[in-house]
Amino acid sequence: MIKSSEKIFFEGAPAKEDLILNLLAGVTLIGLPFTFGAIVRALWVRFKITNKRISVEGGWLGKDKSQIAYTQIKEVRSIPRGLGSYGDMVLVLKDGARLEMRSIPNFRKVESFIKNQINEPNSRNSSVEATGF
Fold it and tell me: Can you tell me the distance from the alpha carbon of 70 to that of 119, in angstroms, rounded to the nearest whole number?
């Protein structure tokens, strides 16, 4: 559920280029596992990135759901795929867990948005001077 103060930055499925490239690789026996993986991602994986959280629906028939607040993220790692038109991203959480997001379209914009959201609360807190004893 999205609250009224929550604004959607990206909502959608994995990159179509990933499916196309893996379907072409499927003509070989070695490429079949990659093709099946791309088909499953295209059918059931959905990303929703807002200014408050990241939600990923996936798994068999889209039954697995993960939601992560930006305060839980420690590090963002990404790598381009498909000649840079899309990419994979791993969010390393403060408790050591990882969330992998594969075949994200416009992943560079998404990565910079996530990094800005992670750093935003820190910049608010650092502007307040600590007073004490």
Answer: 9
Tokens found for residue 106: 């416009």
Q: State pLDDT tens for residues 7-40.
A: 999 999 999 999 999 999 988 888 899 999 899 8
Return the domain boundaries, the chain.
8-126
Contact 117, 51 (CB under 8 A): yes
In 3D, which of 77, 76, 70 has the Cα closest to residue 123?
70
8-126, what's its fold? Answer: PH-domain like (2.30.29)
According to DSSP, the residues that pair with 87 across neighbouring strands are 80, 104
Helices (H), the chain: 16-25, 32-44, 107-126
pTM: 0.80
Geometric angle at alpha carbon 12, from 11 and 18, rounded to 5°: 140
Reduced to 3 states (helix: H, G, I; strand: E, B; else coil), residue 58 is strand
